[in-house]
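debug: dumping io for the single-chain case to check the tokenizer round-trip. Nothing else runs in this session.
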Amino acid sequence: MPKHVYCRHRSEILVPFFDVDAMHIVWHGHYVKYLEVARCAFLDALGYNYDIMREHGHAWPVVKMDLKYIRPARFNQILHVDLALMEYESCLRLDYTLSDAASGEKLTRASTTQVPVSLADGEMQYQTPDSWRQAVRRFTGYRPHP
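debug: decoded output
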């Protein structure tokens, strides 16, 4: 059974010289930064970025991350980072596909999971804040679970 995707977002990243090694291949640790850039662009588009999360009294630490490297990204390559929101009511779970913008060739697959933590007491929340859920439901392209 296919997984439900609540909404999607695409970001574009140009691989800078300082992210590559002597072979002009992106060092594996920089992919985490690319995920964060795409996630921040999505949250901005959603109208519920990290500043707003903090205003609503929550931090959202990453508690799980998975990356699968398929092909290396290279210096000056334009990457598409396609993000899919997979869960938003109990946590923020995103799936990512990084691909070459010119050819569409898949380079990396990844996923991250973040949970809301109360800034007041440091306690992890087992349900995301209502303000977050409302923001997701207002997002253009939101698809409710059937």
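debug: round-trip ok. The domain at 7-138 is CATH 3.10.129.10 (Thiol Ester Dehydrase; Chain A).
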